[in-house]
Design brief:
The complex is a heterotrimer of chains A (226), B (252) and C (223).
Chain A: H1 4-11, H2 14-54, H3 58-73, H4 76-86, H5 96-121, H6 125-133, H7 138-153, H8 155-168, H9 180-191, H10 195-225
Helix pairs in contact in A: 2-5, 2-9, 2-10, 3-5, 4-5, 5-7, 5-8, 6-7, 8-10, 9-10
Chain B: H1 2-5, E1 12-21, E2 24-34, E3 39-43, H2 50-57, E4 65-70, E5 73-74, H3 82-86, E6 89-92, H4 104-114, H5 120-133, H6 149-162, E7 167-171, H7 179-194, E8 198-202, H8 206-212, E9 215-220, E10 223-228, H9 230-235, H10 240-250
Parallel strand pairs in B: 3-8, 3-9, 6-7, 7-8
Antiparallel strand pairs in B: 1-2, 1-4, 4-5, 9-10
Chain C: H1 2-8, H2 11-51, H3 55-70, H4 73-83, H5 93-119, H6 122-130, H7 135-163, H8 177-188, H9 192-218
The chains are: A mainly alpha (226), B alpha/beta (252), C mainly alpha (223).
The structure holds adenosine-5'-diphosphate and magnesium ion (MG).
The site of adenosine-5'-diphosphate has 11 residues of chain B, from β2 and α2.
């Protein structure tokens, strides 16, 4: 007994949409700001972790692996709630945006770090030796010779992780950060139907679907090349 | 320092070099001295420690024991800035090890810009000059994958000479090349030698050794077994190991 | 320091709420296992169907898979949870969480399996067909066994990442570990129950993450 009129009213309600679209736009803008902050932060943190790892300082690398696997094992939502509800008990007032930044930088940095590490390990040892033989320091060799090649080799994985990170920012809605999903839910409470949620989903789709499509082609080509 | 005032007696001096990988002793006390403008040739069976010895000279391998000096300056000291020293020691690898994400020009000019801190234009002028010396200035804009093996190795040589080093170490520079491409690389090396470059060459090109080397060193089992002029080593082998080795490479 | 310990590692609070959090732990495990089994199976089924190359069916599969990969799982979960009642469908929050996460996992798994299947050399198909094996036989006896092997590392990583999302079920009030921990946190005015939950997640996922490293080196392929 699926009634099209009911579906249209509840999920694709034009009147509701007209009423709440400013909310959604402000949520979308917050999501963009969040991504612009958290993607570079997480990426740089990951490159840092991978670079330090490549220096092969044994004791330190054990710590790095435990650190990375720790943050890959904790669900980001748990981390976020820990930061948000844990720290205020000390009287520290953590604004939601900062809490989200901290949680996602550690979480996504660990994933980015693993990807970049794999990229660095895919570069033959001769590259580092050739660079060092001309007098480049380890950091210079890393910056100009190893990383540019490594990042290119793992570009699909980096892109895929970035999509995951952008999607994960929706978790910030749980701690009341007014991003896209949060505003969708607020709007849903106002009009009492699911249209705002569908509209929020549509915005995510417009942002991410093209990249997802592109990526599945890239990934298939990578696997075939093996 | 004293050495910089007078011309040094030796460009490379390595005394009593030992190198262990775990329990395995790859070098068991090797001495090597190379005078200015000398071309020293190292031969020996695979696994005899030739590459390891070469890599100890610019500390790509840290010797377990022994002393290495470059133009009289000890570099096996703690506290020596190895990156400074390596500017003065060029190295050419069997697998070329060109940077695949950079053009030939980028490969040659990177260290000029980042180590010697030259401005881009100055570095590129120098890189063009080096590429001209190896006969490849017309390929300056090409990436390594667009070059033949012989051309890649010549770019790698240009990368080394652009730094104007005191000595260049060659580790089997022609072993990864198709036979018809070997000649062009040897030709560049011959010209380098004629221009007075100090060179240490590990290679199996016996003809080249005979023509161009001042001295030939035969290594086996992590030790220098014989050394002398090419004439002496190739026609008057004293040890059985050298005789066996020469038979195996020349095929009679 | 004392204050920190008292706030985050309060043994008294922990002892009091341990039974609740443990019950939540069990629910989390149940949810995780259901998601993994259904998701991986459904994903494989979709990839196999896709291999038959029936145009309209393939479009449907691609649409399904793309939607569940492009949308944040939390968004899908909330739409299902708040939206389905509008069209007269009521399911428990547990079932909805299970379905949504299983669909998400199935979508990622399908793409990985499919990439594996297409990566098997044409020559394998031709050799197999030339011996008289049919399409389906070739698919099951020759192609999929080869494809599965190279899908194991990415599949392992993906499965762990998506299974961690069981924590999202707390948003739709499934009584899993995070929900219980948050409720206890509110009652006790103390963070220790959340610490317990975090430890619970580590107990589940830390060994899996370490294992995925091993899997990756074991099935390593040259890039
Ligand atoms: N990084 C290393 N780790 C362990 N063993 C090594 C390493 N490098 C070289 N060896 C060993 O040291 C010996 C000498 O190697 P090498 O100097 O490369 O010989 P050659 O260049 O004369 O063929 C070989 O037995 C080789 O296996
Ligand atoms: Mg060698």
């Amino acid at each position: 007994m699926l009634d099209w009129e009911v579906i249209k009213f509840s999920f694709f309600n034009a009147d509701s949409l007209r009423e709440i679209y400013p909310l959604l736009l402000s949520g979308w803008w917050m999501t963009i700001k969040l991504c612009l902050a958290v993607v570079p932060l997480g990426f740089c943190f990951g490159v840092f972790l991978a670079t330090v790892h490549s220096f092969r300082i044994r004791g330190l690398n054990v710590c790095l692996v435990v650190f990375v696997d720790f943050f890959r094992s904790i669900p980001p939502l748990v981390l976020l709630i820990y930061v948000t509800y844990g720290l205020p008990f000390f009287g520290w007032d953590v604004p939601p945006f900062a809490a989200v930044l901290v949680a996602f930088t550690f979480n996504s940095g660990s994933y980015y770090g693993e990807i970049v590490r794999a990229g660095i390990e895919s570069i033959p040892a001769g590259q580092m030796e050739a660079a060092r033989s001309t007098g480049l320091t380890r950091v210079q060799a890393m910056t100009y010779v190893i990383l540019p090649q490594a990042l290119r080799n793992v570009a699909p994985d980096l892109t895929s992780n970035t999509i995951e990170l952008i999607k994960a920012t929706s978790i910030a809605s749980v701690v009341a950060l007014p991003e896209l999903l949060r505003m969708g839910r607020v709007a849903q409470g106002l009009v009492y139907n699911a249209t705002p949620l569908m509209a929020a989903a549509a915005i995510y789709l417009v942002m991410l679907w093209p990249i997802v499509r592109l990526l599945s082609r890239l990934e298939r080509r990578m696997m075939s090349a093996r | 320092m004293a050495q910089t005032t007078a011309a040094p007696r030796y460009v490379v001096e390595a005394y009593d070099i030992h190198k262990s990988f775990g329990d395995f002793e790859a070098l068991k006390g090797v001495n090597l001295t190379v005078a200015p403008q000398e071309l020293v040739f190292i031969i020996g069976p695979s696994g005899s420690g030739k590459s390891t010895m070469l890599r100890c000279c610019n500390l790509l391998e840290q010797p377990s024991r022994g002393v290495v000096k470059i133009t009289g300056e000890e570099i096996t000291h703690r506290g020596v800035d190895i990156n400074k020293v390596r500017q003065r020691i060029g190295m050419v690898f069997q697998q070329f090890n060109l940077y695949p994400h950079m053009s030939a020009l980028g490969n040659v000019s990177l260290a000029l810009r980042k180590v010697k801190k030259m401005a881009r234009s100055e570095a590129e002028d120098r890189a063009h000059a080096a590429l001209t010396r190896v006969g490849l200035d017309d390929k300056a804009g090409n990436h390594p994958t667009e070059l033949s093996g012989g051309q890649q190795q010549r770019v790698a040589i240009a990368r080394a000479i652009a730094m104007e080093p005191d000595v260049i170490l060659f580790d089997e520079p022609t072993s990864a090349l198709d036979p018809e491409l070997v000649g062009s690389v040897l030709e560049v090396m011959r010209e380098l030698r004629e221009s007075g470059m100090t060179m240490v060459v590990v290679s199996h090109e016996m003809r080249f050794a005979r023509d161009a080397a001042d001295r030939v060193i035969f290594m086996d089992g992590g030790l220098v077994v014989e050394e002398g002029t090419p004439e002496r080593v190739f026609t008057d082998a004293r040890s059985d190991r050298l005789k066996a080795f020469l038979t195996s490479v020349t095929g009679h | 320091m004392d204050r920190f310990l008292d706030q985050f590692f309060n043994l008294e609070v922990m002892a009091k709420y341990l039974p609740d959090v443990a019950a939540g732990f069990v629910v989390t495990i149940q949810l995780a296992l259901s998601v993994i089994v259904t998701g991986l199976t459904l994903g494989l089924a979709l990839a196999v169907i896709r291999a038959f190359q029936i145009r309209p069916v393939n479009w449907l599969i691609i649409l399904f898979v793309d939607l569940f990969r492009a949308l944040p799982p939390l968004v899908i979960l909330i739409i299902f949870y708040f939206g389905l009642p509008f069209i007269g469908l009521t399911m428990s929050a547990f079932v909805i969480s299970w379905l949504v996460l299983a669909f998400v996992l199935a979508s990622f798994a399908e793409e990985i399996y499919w990439a594996g299947i297409t990566s098997v050399n044409r020559g394998q198909w031709e050799a197999s067909r030339s011996t008289g094996l049919g399409f389906t036989q070739t698919l099951f006896y020759v192609v999929i066994p080869q494809a599965i092997r190279m899908t194991i590392p990415p599949l392992t990583n993906r499965t762990i990442a998506i299974t961690k999302n069981t924590a999202l079920a707390s948003v739709v009030t499934v009584e899993e570990m995070l929900t219980v921990a948050q409720t206890s946190l509110a009652y006790a005015a103390n963070t220790s129950p959340l610490t317990m939950a975090a430890v619970g997640y580590l107990l589940i996922f830390f060994p899996l993450t370490m294992a995925s490293r091993w899997v990756e080196s074991r099935y390593a392929w040259k890039r």
